[in-house]
Design brief:
Blueprint (H helix, E strand, L loop, with lengths): L10 E5 L4 H11 L3 E6 L16 H5 L3 E5 L5 H12 L3 E4 L5 H4 L4 H5 L6 E6 L13 H8 L1 H5 L12 H24 L4 E5 H8 L1 H10 L15 E6 L4 E6 L2 H10 L3 H4 L7 H6 L1 H12 L4 H8 L6 E3 L10 H5 L3 E5 L5 E5 L14 E2 L7 H7 L4 H9 L5
Parallel strand pairs: 1-2, 1-4, 2-3, 4-5, 5-6, 10-12
Antiparallel strand pairs: 7-8, 8-9, 10-11
Helix pairs in contact: 1-8, 6-9, 8-9
């Protein structure tokens, strides 16, 4: 089956590292854009991170070509400019001012490519903080997300790079909006997204809660839930999450578990009344759930329409039957030749998934082919490689 490639024909040049910038290129590449990643001689250091960073490179750099350039050498910079001159999109997430100092600013590059869409992924959008160095964790702490995630007085970052990835997604949204505008104007533009402002967008619901109720939102572990049953429950073996989020689901839940006493109590028919009576309801429900194994509960809840979830770990997803059946995991060949499966883009287009087999390019794997496309001769390429201007 042919995979959907709606962005085929768009050429992207990436000057990125870590997660946020590479996420932009990863999404565009999964949708069919040709993405050329510019790495330093010796390779992007993200390739060799250990511990929690060891998954960054394989997750966010599939479907891309790699060219290794020495951007400190004028000839390396010239190659970079020639690459961008024929590109549709540039993505960068270097420190503020780094691309400008290299002579690779939007203003300079757009002189030779008026159609260029230049995406800068930064810690902060322009303003008093814009020259600060930010990380995913910095943004989560500054923006209130860590406060909302941990118990009171114990801020806790989310368990994945949610701001890096979401910030990258907002960058893609801005790029695609700029592509659409370019259809009308013939001109590109500079677009930006950032870690801090992305965090603010994500905690906007808590800001709105304050505006609506006049009361500041409590951290999630101490929150007053919008629903009486919206919790992790301990079974005889493993925990499970159950949510009862409408009055109709409350009736279904009570009937499913023969909770006649609760269902016949008309004071509990309305959601907000159940929230007020949570201290009365929860001991009964915890007792009830504790009498089942996790698998018994899943069997009972499956197909009822009641929201539930076993508590899984990331490594469990390799064998998840739903993900394996619907093409959510794509085959990936790592640089050492080993095989794995990693999540593809979580969308469907015209009944098809854009996920497809992927290979992680070695550093500079496509350098020679790309230089040939730029009309460098074999002798010129050999000289550039000998002088370590390219790899």
């Amino acid at each position: 089956m042919t995979q959907p490639t709606p962005l085929a024909g768009l050429k992207v040049i990436e000057f990125t590292h870590m997660v946020m910038g590479p996420t932009v290129g990863a999404v565009l590449a999964s949708l069919g854009a040709e993405v050329v990643r510019v790495e330093p001689i010796g390779g992007d250091r993200t390739r060799n991170l250990v511990g929690s960073g060891s998954g960054y490179f394989p997750m966010y750099n599939r479907h891309k070509q790699s060219i290794a350039l020495n951007l400190k050498d004028p000839k390396g910079l010239d190659i970079a400019r020639r690459l961008v001159a024929s590109a549709d999109i540039l993505v960068e997430n270097y420190r503020p001012g780094a691309m400008d100092r290299l002579g690779l600013s939007y203003e300079k590059l757009s002189e030779n490519n008026i159609r260029l869409i230049y995406c800068s992924e930064k810690g902060f959008l322009p303003g008093p903080y814009e020259n600060r160095t930010a990380l995913d964790e910095v943004a989560q702490m500054m923006g209130g997300l860590a406060y909302m995630t941990g118990p009171p007085g114990q801020p806790l970052r989310a368990g994945s790079s949610v701001i890096d990835v979401t910030g990258g997604m907002f960058g893609v949204i801005a790029i695609l909006a700029a592509v659409e505008e370019r259809h009308r104007t013939g001109r590109g533009q500079k677009v930006q997204s950032s870690l801090f402002e992305t965090t603010i967008y994500l905690i906007g619901q808590h800001m709105a809660q304050m505006a609506v109720t006049g009361k500041a939102a409590d951290p999630m572990p101490a929150r007053i839930s919008a629903w009486a049953i919206y919790d992790v429950f301990q079974t005889k073996d493993d925990p499970i999450f159950i949510g009862v989020v409408t009055d109709a689901l409350w009736e279904k839940f009570c009937r499913l578990f023969d909770l006649d006493e609760l269902w016949t109590d008309e004071s509990l028919r309305e959601n907000n009344n159940r929230v007020a009576a949570r201290d009365q309801i929860m001991p009964v429900i915890r007792d009830l759930i504790g009498g089942f194994t996790r698998d018994e509960l899943i069997t009972k809840l499956e197909g009822t329409g009641l929201p539930f979830a076993p508590i899984a770990r990331p490594e469990d997803m390799f064998d998840d039957p739903h993900l394996k059946a619907n093409g959510s995991l794509e085959n990936v060949t790592l640089p050492d030749g080993s095989q794995t499966m990693l999540p593809g883009l979580p969308v469907e287009m015209n009944g098809q998934r854009p996920s497809q087999d992927a290979k992680l390019a070695n550093c500079g794997e496509n350098t020679v082919d790309i230089l040939h496309q730029l009309e460098f001769s074999a002798d010129a390429i050999a000289e550039l490689r000998e002088r370590r201007i390219v790899e």
